[in-house]
Amino acid sequence: MTGRRGREPAGFPPSRWVDSFIEMMAAERGAAVNTLDSYRHDLDDFSGFTAGRGRQPEDADPTMIRKYLARMTGAGLSPRTAARRLSALRQFFLFLLSDDYRGDDPTATIDSPHQGRSLPKYLSEEEVERLLDRAHVHSGPEGARLIALIEVLYACGLRVSELVGLPLGALSRDGMILIVRGKGAKERMVPLNEEASAALVAYLAHRTHFIPQALHGRSPWMFPSRAKQGYLTRARFGQLIKVLAGEAGIDPKRVSPHVLRHSFASHLLAHGADLRALQQMLGHSDIATTQIYTHVLDERLKSLVRAAHPLSVHGPR
Question: Where is the active site (predicted)?
Fold first, then answer.
């Protein structure tokens, strides 16, 4: 079977409540396209499960939800994936509760799957320097764009979707500030360092090279392309950064736009950045999300003690 609802039995009607929930998330909460796609995927998967048992997803009870979680465990899905899908279900049933379709929340008594806290993956400062140096070897329009993308990503710690989707007007007149629209359509100001600002200015001289001829040199995007959405895709940028990693002698599997975002945060914090300021630059709505980077520092300190402390090196006297 193919299609968005391919997991549902043939002839089983799709849930109008799932569609209504997605519309609400887009219209009232301003959820990003990627967030909406994630909710849609997770709720469609649950819809397929309930349909196989003769029910619509909005009519599920706690027992059915527990069986759904058990099926995911049996299928070998990670606790992180199961927790994400349960989170989508919680939001869905809260929506049904607020719309008076249901008088209860069947997820209220269900605990989230236990997840081991994984530390963010990041590159060392020396590895980032190698990546940046290698980018600057590239020339021409493609090289100027690659340099600008890497410099801005590491200087600002943007999400990859925020970076590739920057509008041309996001850059301040002095070229030192970016106005970034993040999750939930929230705007924040992120400062550029001199290297990133210079890289953007140098790239803008080549920007029209990437605008499709049909648009006659006009595009609202900072990084235009022939892609359907009109700007460079996340997948294409991911490919470019992995090729660059290989050229810099770094395992491409260790490098991605998100790893550079983590590197930005980890390195800033290691050099004494304020956690609240870092939260604002990263666009985190909750400081708890930002605090995970303090665990990175904890691990660094532990490693330093193990490597350099006399008692760690020579053992107890």
Answer: 159, 183, 258, 261, 284, 293
